[in-house]
Specification:
CATH superfamily of the largest domain: Type I PLP-dependent aspartate aminotransferase-like (Major domain)
Structural class: alpha/beta
Number of domains: 2
CATH topology of the largest domain: Aspartate Aminotransferase, domain 2
Strand content: 15-25%
Number of helices: 15
CATH class of the largest domain: Alpha Beta
Largest sheet: 7 strands, mixed
Strand order of the largest sheet: 4-12-11-10-7-5-6
CATH architecture of the largest domain: 3-Layer(aba) Sandwich
Distance between the termini: 58 Å
Helix content: 40-55%
Bound molecules: pyridoxal-5'-phosphate
Length: 438
């Protein structure tokens, strides 16, 4: 009783504390949100509205968004076309609940996904709706691969990031996130990603040797899971040739080839899928982040029909049918038939390529190289602390951007795909200024 009273008292004090108008909004976050919060620490502003490539804080200051919700708002904030469709759906009392009932919104999304994305690319896949986050899609993909092959081991790659729920975390490289698991992370073996080992080291030949040798100590894997560009791992790019060899290895071993296109997909590299010009045909593809197009949670797993071995309801969840996200996602897909959008995307990639080349040449001393491709690029600093310094200096100039890579040495440029070219150019000039003043 005593402790309950005390708790109530504390809760009362907290509520009073938060309601106090004089308490700055950021202090409410610091006081009440768990210590686990992270992005709000690096970007100490309270954002209230957003449009296109701009975020606005409570005082009305505009920030250029080079983080784009970690790649979940590729079409910009509150894109008018997507927003109108969502509002109209709500206005008409469209079904919102997220259980996987058949709904008009789901049917419309599936029709358009087939018509706009799959059919024109000659792709034959079933769509699995998973829980609405990327890590949910990865869990489903890994579980399916294990079921389809009857094998436990999954091969993943150095510096890979696949999410933080336990199965996905086992495939993730990041040491801090792995250490937080609190249990052993089993049944994953890791191979060096393309270019991880200096020189001409052939990590696919190495993998082949290990997995084909019955006495190597490695069992045959159920799957290979790979990102074509490692977003969190530092914008490391896999070459088309390497990916083709990896696919061939997976095929030879009877393993499922999974591409985690959660961050690199949905247009980030310049095409809808990050690999569509690479001549590979993954058995399973994970999509999330920008699949809904406006930041609403949604994730899907694309499965080649012969691997769709799920029993009905074998992998389920209450929120596997976010209808509002389906409405947004279907509308977002319309951009892939929109010449203006496609031209702007190509132009923006040229602007970023050229801008970063200039920055690199000017600051050859502090910078190592340009990494990534499309509108998914970064610059590697010789000293990781310089990348962080520039990130902070950019925030002072009201540009929101992150660092990535094993030591945070890569400054990451990830604006909405629809950013006006002039704003993109101007922001890259600001990066130039910040590096100059290091
Ligand atoms: C973000 C990300 C995930 C995890 O997605 P969440 O929605 O954060 O769970 C998985 N894979 C890749 C490549 C990602 O970038």
């Amino acid at each position: 009783m005593h402790t309950e009273e005390k708790m109530e008292d504390q809760v009362g004090q907290r509520i009073a504390h938060c309601e106090e108008r004089s308490i700055p909004a950021m202090m409410v976050i610091e006081h009440t949100e768990s210590n686990v919060r992270s992005y709000s620490r690096g970007f100490p502003a309270v954002f209230s509205t957003a449009k296109g490539s701009l975020l606005y804080d409570e005082a009305g200051n505009a920030y250029v968004d080079f983080l784009a919700g970690a790649g979940s708002v590729n079409y910009g904030h509150n894109d008018a076309r997507i927003k109108d469709a969502v509002i109209e759906y709500l206005q008409n009392d469209g079904v919102v609940q997220g259980l996987d009932l058949a709904t008009t919104a789901k049917v419309a999304f599936l029709r358009d996904f087939e018509r706009i994305v799959l059919a024109p690319r000659g792709m034959d896949y079933r769509v699995q709706f998973t829980g609405p986050t990327g890590t949910n899609a990865v869990e489903a993909a890994l579980k399916l691969a294990r079921k389809a092959t009857g094998r436990a081991i999954v091969a993943s790659f150095t510096n890979g990031f696949h999410g933080v729920s336990l199965g996905a975390l086992a495939a993730t490289g990041n040491g801090i996130k792995r250490a937080a698991a609190g249990v052993s992370l089993n049944d994953v073996v890791r191979l060096p990603f393309d270019g991880y080992v200096d020189g001409d080291f052939d990590s696919i030949a190495y993998g082949r040797k290990l997995f084909e040798d019955p006495s190597s100590g490695y069992g045959k894997p159920a799957a290979f899971i790979v990102e074509t560009v490692q977003g969190e791992g530092g914008l490391n790019v896999a070459s088309a040739q390497w990916l083709r060899s990896l696919q061939a290895l997976a095929t030879d071993l009877g393993a499922i080839f999974i591409v985690d296109d959660i961050q690199a997909g949905c247009g980030r590299t310049g095409t809808f899928f990050s690999f569509e010009r690479f001549g590979i045909h993954p058995a399973v593809i994970c999509l999330s982040k920008s699949i809904s197009g406006n930041g609403l949670p949604m994730a899907i797993v694309l499965i080649k029909p012969k691997y769709d071995v799920w029993a009905p309801g074998e992998h389920n969840g209450t929120f596997r049918g976010n209808n509002l996200a389906f409405v947004a996602a279907r509308t977002a897909l319309s951009y892939w038939q929109d010449k203006h959008f496609l031209t702007q995307l190509d132009e923006n990639i040229c602007v970023m390529d050229a801008g970063l080349e200039t920055v690199l040449k000017k600051h050859a001393k502090s910078l190592v190289r340009r990494k990534g491709r499309g509108l998914f690029q970064g610059i590697e600093f010789a000293r990781p602390e310089d990348a962080m310094r520039v990130r902070r200096a950019m925030f002072d100039r009201r540009v929101v951007m992150e660092v990535s890579g094993p030591r945070g040495e890569v400054l990451k440029l990830m604006p909405p795909l629809t950013i006006p070219a002039t704003l993109l150019e101007r922001s890259i000039k600001l990066i130039d200024e910040c590096i100059a003043s290091l």
